[in-house]
RNA sequence: GGAAAGAUGCCGGAGUGGUCGAUCGGACCGCACUCGAAAUGCGGCAAGCGGGUCACACUGCUUCCAGGGUUCGAAUCCCUGUCUUUCCGCCA
């Protein structure tokens, strides 16, 4: 959530930012927060005063007891009784206001950076880089990946339906091996770039879901194990970022660079049509995530490095790709700036999103209470958090199958994956 | 799943009703000593929400797992929950 400091000190900027993000009723919402904050402060001040008086009285009574002046102590006790109920009332009021304000703050999205283009939908996203070179010469009528996967016995969608349901494919043979090859390739690349590999739990508690912002608003997007009140993670971002919940890092520990491969689970309620065909949208999929935590002054540089890393991955795989700078209206709730990577699927004639690389500024850190201590001043400040997919497997697999398909029905293995696959062609 | 014990600051570990935000040790930081280091000595060393200040200083309140309760007063007593450890059972 946005910090109160930002809202109170740079009100105009916040309102402008929210408008850019196409958040309805920005002005009113911000004025409401400011009013709530003022009220909260007043309640706090009033409560503090009463508590101070009550603490003082307790001390005096203690002193009287010690001095053996029982009568005077008893008299003082009677006087304190009144204070007590007042305290209770003020306390309740303060807690209620704090809770209300926090809940309301959570409904206000992050504000975009200046570099974020204006716009309300995906159509307004800015293509900042385009590389549409195909890795191979394709057959006259290229097949979509679901046909290739079926012909080469790589993925069995029907079997997944039998075992679990739609959106849970079964990978087998070279299809399964391709999954493992990509996971290892991506992790090796991340390690080479200095990211520490993490293998976190794939099930998290409420506090973690809240920390990264999936809860409370996006509750319906996650699978929920009600008996234990745990959630299946929609991305490794959740458990990995939560490592740093309620943590104060030292400045010299920054930037933190973590990577993790996990299975990701998404309910994707409401999705339909050609979007969900084949591997385009699944309920369970593999993804390698990179997460960074950095100082405010260095986070932009970090973000750039992450973008270069992800670009390196798609380049090495030889896939046609483009990079989009998302416009204000299409960015996620929590990000300050976000770039999407898309690879081109020749057979489907469409771009498939394989990565989003975002800087959340302090928005996520504020909710997480992820802070760092300055080496010089010893002051504590909120960190900046960033993350990105590097990369999500299914659409990469779709693109590889489609863009590397050969006239004889086989699929050429991208050079970088050959050592991981142990073969040059999938046939 | 059954039984028992426990949860205190970065870590270890005291503290069973009043001046305890918390003894002590370690780690860490600063200073002194040293050519430098080690050793030693001295000092510092929690966070949150407020007030205050240009910024400090200074200052009120809260927090000893969480939430309730008893009391004038709770780290300390009571209740509930969570988690951890050990033993038993089960088990990849």
Provide structural commentary:
The chain has 427 residues and is α+β, with helices and mostly antiparallel strands. It folds into 2 domains: 4-105, Serine-tRNA synthetase, tRNA binding domain (Helix Hairpins); 122-426, 2-Layer Sandwich (BirA Bifunctional Protein, domain 2), CATH 3.30.930.10. Helices cover 42% and strands 21% of the residues. The chain is built from 13 helices and 18 strands. Helix 3 (26-67) runs antiparallel to helix 4. It is elongated. The two termini are 50 Å apart. The protein binds one RNA strand of 92 nucleotides through helix 3 and helix 4.
List the topology elements.
Layout: H1 4-9, H2 11-20, H3 26-67, H4 70-105, E1 126-131, H5 145-151, E2 155-156, H6 157-163, E3 170-171, H7 174-192, E4 196-198, E5 203-204, H8 206-211, E6 224-225, E7 230-232, H9 237-242, E8 247-250, E9 256-265, E10 284-294, H10 299-317, E11 321-325, E12 337-345, E13 350-359, H11 363-368, E14 370-373, E15 380-382, E16 384-392, H12 393-403, E17 411-412, H13 418-421, E18 425-426
Parallel strand pairs: 4-9, 8-14
Antiparallel strand pairs: 1-11, 2-3, 5-7, 6-7, 9-10, 10-16, 11-12, 12-13, 13-16, 14-15, 17-18
Helix pairs in contact: 3-4, 5-12
The structure holds one RNA strand of 92 nucleotides.
């Amino acid at each position: 959530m946005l910090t109160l400091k930002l809202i109170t000190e740079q009100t105009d900027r916040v309102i402008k930012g929210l408008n850019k993000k196409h958040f309805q009723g920005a002005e009113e919402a911000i004025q409401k927060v400011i009013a709530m904050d003022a009220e909260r402060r007043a309640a706090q001040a009033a409560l503090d005063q009463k508590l101070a008086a009550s603490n003082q009285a307790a001390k005096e009574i203690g002193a009287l007891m010690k001095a053996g002046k029982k009568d005077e102590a008893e008299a003082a006790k009677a006087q304190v009784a009144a204070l007590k109920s007042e305290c209770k009332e003020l306390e309740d009021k303060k807690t209620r206001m704090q809770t209300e304000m926090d809940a309301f703050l959570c409904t206000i999205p992050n504000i975009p950076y200046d570099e974020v283009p204006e716009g309300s939908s995906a159509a307004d996203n800015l293509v900042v880089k385009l590389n549409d070179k195909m890795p191979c010469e394709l057959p006259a009528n290229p097949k979509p990946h679901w046909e290739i996967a079926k012909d080469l016995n790589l993925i069995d969608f029907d079997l997944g339906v039998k075992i679990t349901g739609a959106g849970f494919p079964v990978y087998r043979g070279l299809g399964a091996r391709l999954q493992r090859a990509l996971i290892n390739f991506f992790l090796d690349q991340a390690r080479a770039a200095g990211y520490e590999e993490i293998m976190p739990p794939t099930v998290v508690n409420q506090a973690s879901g809240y920390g990264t912002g999936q809860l409370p608003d996006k509750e319906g997007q996650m699978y929920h194990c009600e008996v234990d009140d745990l959630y299946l993670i929609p991305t490794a971002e959740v458990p990995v970022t939560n490592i740093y919940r309620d943590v104060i890092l030292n400045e010299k520990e920054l930037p933190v660079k973590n990577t993790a491969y996990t299975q990701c689970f998404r309910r994707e309620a409401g999705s339909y049509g050609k979007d969900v065909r084949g591997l385009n949208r699944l309920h369970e999929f593999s993804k390698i995530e990179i997460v960074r935590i950095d100082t405010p002054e260095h986070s932009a540089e970090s973000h750039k490095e992450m973008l270069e890393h992800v670009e390196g991955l798609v380049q090495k795989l030889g896939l046609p790709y483009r990079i989009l700078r998302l416009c204000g209206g299409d960015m996620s709730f929590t990000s300050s700036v976000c770039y999407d990577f898309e690879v081109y699927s020749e057979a489907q004639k469409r771009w498939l999103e394989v990565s989003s690389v975002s800087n959340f500024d302090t928005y996520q850190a504020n909710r997480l209470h992820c802070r760092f201590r300055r080496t010089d001043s010893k002051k504590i400040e909120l960190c900046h958090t960033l993350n990105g997919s590097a990369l999500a497997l299914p659409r990469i697999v779709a693109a590889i199958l489609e863009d590397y398909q050969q006239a004889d029905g086989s699929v050429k293995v991208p050079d970088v994956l050959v050592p991981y696959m142990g073969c040059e062609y999938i046939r």
